[in-house]
């Protein structure tokens, strides 16, 4: 478990610098040096008066699977959103009316975000989960070399 | 196994989830997969206003059929996560439909002097002169909004 900084909340109070025993909080990037952070130490988390530092887990418990039929139904909804996204993308690419193109672009983006939310609620919440690994494994079998290489790095 | 044709939103969602954990390499790789599995919608099957009408009808069908059916399924399974996603999704979808209807009725005038903003958290589309303070659908702060260019 390592500490991470939410830059938008950080008020540069710098109390994290006073308490960190390894200097992991003192970086030029604004982010904490995860490699130097002592696992679960949380001194900086408690010292920060702005609540800008939090702990990120390195290992997650395996999430409970949802009701299978419900998860499937959420994926079907995601597929509908994806079809709409592609339709909007097509409109944006082909219309000559700039206002229509802009609206289509917004719809495309919006459909993607709603679709992603459906995926999340269909057992694809956590990248480290078994469900995600299963999908990656099944892709790996018949994938072209380029995709295979990406999938292998993820597995 | 899930159809490979619709993996793109699953992977782009996982890219965001990895990014939240500061797993930057994984985020990048999932992002690449999202791109590789995306089948761009560039086929010009229907023209102009007709295609917007077609999109509108699909969105309207979600509201009259898909959401009510899923709502009962979610309630039956007592799945709060699903119910939450449906609630946000239904609101966002309603706004999508309303915007298309208004655009079809008023044309370019609808957007004159205004910009479109999207809530990155839930997909809510806002038409106005600046971002709202918080998202009316999911309550995300204004900094989660991006402007459509």
Itemize the secondary structure elements and their pairings.
The complex is a heterodimer of chains A (155) and B (149).
Chain A: E1 2-5, H1 15-19, H2 43-47, E2 53-56, H3 68-94, H4 98-120, H5 130-142, H6 145-154
Antiparallel strand pairs in A: 1-2
Chain B: H1 8-20, H2 24-36, H3 48-76, H4 80-106, E1 115-119, E2 125-128, E3 145-147
Antiparallel strand pairs in B: 1-2, 1-3
Helix pairs in contact in B: 1-2, 3-4
Walk me through the structure.
The complex is a heterodimer of chains A (155) and B (149). Chain A is mainly alpha-helical. Chain A is built from six helices and two strands. In chain A, 39% of the residues are buried. Chain A is 54% helix and 5% strand. The radius of gyration of chain A is 21 Å and the shape is extended. Chain A folds into two domains: 1-59, Alpha-Beta Plaits; 68-154, no CATH class. In chain B, a hairpin with a 5-residue loop joins strand 1 and strand 2 (125-128). In chain B, helix 1 (8-20) runs antiparallel to helix 2 and helix 3 packs antiparallel against helix 4 (80-106). Chain B has a three-stranded antiparallel sheet with strand order 2-1-3. Helices cover 55% and strands 8% of the residues of chain B. The model of chain B has no long low-confidence stretch (mean pLDDT 93). Chain B has 149 residues and is mainly alpha-helical. Chains A and B meet through helix 3, helix 4, helix 5 and helix 6 of A and helix 1, helix 2, helix 3, helix 4 and strand 1 of B.
Structure keywords:
heterodimer, A: 155 residues, Alpha-Beta Plaits, 2 domains, two-stranded antiparallel ribbon, 5% strand, extended, B: 149 residues, mainly alpha, Rubrerythrin, domain 2, 3 domains, 8% strand
Task: Tell me briefly what this model is.
With 155 residues, chain A is mainly alpha-helical.
Proportion of residues in helical segments of chain A: 40-55%
Biggest sheet descriptor of chain B = 3 strands, antiparallel
Report how far the terminal alpha carbons of chain A are from each other.
Answer: 21 Å
Number of helices of chain A: 6
Strand content of chain A: 5-15%
Q: Biggest interface in this structure?
A: A-B, 67 and 75 residues
Work out the strand percent of chain B: 5-15%
């Amino acid at each position: 478990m390592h500490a991470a900084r939410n830059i938008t909340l950080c008020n540069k109070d710098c109390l994290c610098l006073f308490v960190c025993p390894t200097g992991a909080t003192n970086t030029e990037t604004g982010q904490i040096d995860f490699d130097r952070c002592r696992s679960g130490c949380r001194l900086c988390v408690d010292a920060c008066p702005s609540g800008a530092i939090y702990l990120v887990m390195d290992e997650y418990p395996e999430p409970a699977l949802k009701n299978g039929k419900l998860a499937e139904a959420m994926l079907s909804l995601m597929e509908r959103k994806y079809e709409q996204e592609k339709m909007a993308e097509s409109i944006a690419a082909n219309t000559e009316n700039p206002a229509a193109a802009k609206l289509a672009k917004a719809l495309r983006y919006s459909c993607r975000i709603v679709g992603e939310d459906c995926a999340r609620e269909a057992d694809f919440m956590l990248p480290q989960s078994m469900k995600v690994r299963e999908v990656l494994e099944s892709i790996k079998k018949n994938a072209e070399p380029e995709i295979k290489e990406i999938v292998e790095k993820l597995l | 196994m899930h159809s490979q044709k619709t993996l793109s939103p699953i992977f782009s969602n996982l890219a965001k989830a990895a990014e939240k954990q500061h797993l930057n390499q994984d985020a990048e790789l999932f992002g690449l997969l999202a791109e590789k599995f995306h089948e761009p919608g560039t086929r010009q099957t229907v023209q102009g206003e007709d295609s917007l009408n077609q999109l509108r009808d699909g969105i309207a069908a979600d509201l009259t059929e898909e959401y009510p059916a899923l709502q009962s399924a979610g309630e039956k399974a007592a799945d709060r996560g699903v119910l939450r996603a449906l609630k946000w999704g239904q609101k966002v979808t309603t706004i999508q439909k309303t915007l298309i209807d208004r655009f079809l009725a008023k044309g370019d005038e609808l957007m004159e002097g205004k910009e479109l903003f999207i809530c990155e958290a839930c997909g809510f589309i806002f038409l106005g002169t600046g971002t709202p303070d918080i998202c009316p659908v999911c309550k995300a702060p204004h900094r989660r909004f991006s402007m459509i260019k």
